[in-house]
Design goal:
The protein has about 525 residues and is mainly alpha-helical.
Length: about 525
């Protein structure tokens, strides 16, 4: 620290004695022998890995372990936790790393990489006009990443974010409404600008998701537009309708072949290229418990819990059974752990000392391999959103009926698991039986059925399941009320800002979503 003080002291002296202007100081800070042209293909690949929690900032478990799992999977009652690991979402407690992880990792990883791509491929950049498709694909990734950030926190730095090179070290906060307005515009422009006639410059080789398939990138742009438009539909019906119509006209996902998967691998090390969700659950690594919530298991077991004939076919895809030896795989015997219980409470509930490892269903290990691909967005969600849009009369130009889109969404959601393991299949006949058992708009109100299916669809993508639940109110979850919780027994509806942002950015007090509590709703959450 003494040496650092000396350098700061003399650094200030140089400024005072020489009277350098801003440009001169900037020039002094440039190494003339350094590489000043970066490989945009490498940076784009890093940005793609970043949206799968696996970018250049280090630990590929961190954001999934702390936030996707620790808060979201428990808050929306896909998982339950009686002790061990990180689980503020199960008992509505505070974990500072859970709050900070999305903010710090997203700005410092994929958004930083995307900012460099947009700078160098834009006006005045060394790659201006050469990387047109990569530039517009990067804009889609940017929209995806900023949507995730603002959905977690509400107002966040947007228009001035990642502009430290321009001297903006304390960016202002933009309202969530303004951010969504610009994100939808960005998606509209980016999807329209993607074209096979644009120069490639290595885009296909750099693209881990679609291998440069422009038609699929356009579909993702319009599918993401549909998601964001529906997200604001309760607070800005007009804008939602405009962009639902644009998305339908532009062309959204048409099958599971369009799903957004980021490829993972076993190597080169535990910290690079491996699936962060799998690593968070690895007993020798993250060590997060893998017990399924009673809410989810009971939903998948259907109306009659005592028979398997009315079960959701995903029950024994998501569940790997009970126990590690002589595993119980009988669907009827699957049992989820209740949320909001610790070991003593479970013992009292069950009337005995509970061995949780032999009592409750766990996540199927076939979906927890380090080399498993990472799901970002899928066709099933898109079909369910189209069903909702028709049901609520949001937008125009959507062919088919709400029922046909709902049934296509359920089928796609049930048949999308084979990239994890080829054995995780659901037959057309099993899908048809389920849809007959629970007919659309009859078993329950249509919008409730759509909301419940969106909820199940987002297994592993728990932050998005949390968003859907906050927006739709479905499924109808029963909150927990663990002693000492910080929400007075209500399910959290946003994250708190990182403490260093609260203390360090002077724009926080005037621009952030306040009060900074788990119970303060974001703009679209009405």
């Amino acid at each position: 620290m003494k040496n650092l003080g000396k350098y700061i002291k003399y650094g200030l002296a140089v400024v005072l004695v020489t009277g350098c202007d801003t440009q001169q100081l900037h020039d002094l800070n440039i190494n003339p022998q350094a590489l000043n042209q970066v490989n945009l293909n490498f940076i784009f690949t890093s940005a793609e890995l970043g949206i799968a929690s696996n970018g250049s900032t280090g630990d590929n478990r961190y954001i999934d372990w702390r936030t996707n799992i620790g808060m979201c999977a428990y808050a929306i009652q896909h998982l339950a936790n009686a002790g061990g690991g990180i689980a503020p979402g199960d008992k509505y407690t505070v974990n500072s790393e859970t709050n900070a992880a999305p903010f710090e990792f997203t700005y410092n990883d994929q958004l930083k990489n995307v900012a460099e791509i947009l700078k160098q491929s834009g006006p005045g950049g060394f790659a201006e006009g050469k990387y047109v498709n990569m530039r517009n694909a990067a804009r889609i990734i940017r929209a995806f990443s900023f949507a995730r950030l603002t959905d977690f926190y509400g107002n966040v730095p947007y228009s001035e974010a990642n502009k430290g090179i321009e001297g903006i070290f304390f960016p202002k906060y933009d309202s969530q409404e303004a951010i969504y307005t610009d994100l939808l515009k960005e998606l509209d422009e980016a999807a329209s600008a993607l074209s096979t006639s644009n120069p490639d410059e290595g885009f296909a080789a750099a693209d881990f998701i679609y291998k440069g398939d422009i038609a699929k990138w356009k579909k993702w742009g319009y599918s993401l537009m549909l998601r964001l438009a529906m997200r604001i539909s309760n607070v800005d019906a007009g804008k939602a309708a405009t962009y639902v119509t644009k998305a339908a006209a532009g062309g959204v996902f048409a099958s599971n072949a369009d799903n957004v998967w980021v490829a993972m691998a076993d190597g080169p090390s535990e910290w690079v290229n491996q699936n962060g969700i799998s690593r968070a659950f690895d007993p020798g690594d993250g060590g997060q418990p893998t017990y399924l919530s009673a809410t989810l298991v009971n939903h998948l077991k259907g109306t009659n819990q005592g028979v398997a004939t009315d079960d959701d076919p995903r029950l024994m895809i998501i569940s790997g059974g009970i126990g590690s030896e002589n595993v119980i795989t009988d669907p009827v015997k699957q049992k989820g752990m209740p949320n909001g219980y610790d070991q003593a409470m479970l013992d009292k509930l069950e009337g005995k000392t509970v061995d949780v490892s032999k009592t409750y269903s766990r996540i199927n290990t076939k979906m927890l391999q380090d080399s498993d691909p990472y799901m970002i967005m899928n066709y099933g969600e898109v079909e369910l959103l189209l069903a909702e849009a028709i049901e609520r009369k949001i937008g125009t130009g959507i062919s088919g009926t709400a029922k046909s889109h709902y049934e296509a969404g359920v089928k796609a959601s049930m048949q999308m698991f084979t990239p994890y393991d080829a054995s995780l299949t659901v037959s057309d006949a099993a899908v048809a039986t389920y849809l007959t058992t629970y007919p659309y708009g009859t078993a329950k109100p249509a919008l409730e059925m759509i909301g419940e299916q969106l909820w199940v669809n987002k297994f592993f993508n728990w932050w998005e399941a949390w968003n859907d639940w906050r927006r739709t109110g479905f499924p109808k979850l029963t909150p927990t009320n663990y002693p000492g919780n910080v929400t007075n027994g209500t399910i959290p509806v946003r994250l708190r800002y990182p403490t260093n942002e609260v203390a360090g950015n002077p724009n926080y007090q005037t621009g952030a979503t306040l009060p900074d509590e788990f119970t303060t709703k974001v703009w679209w959450d009405k």
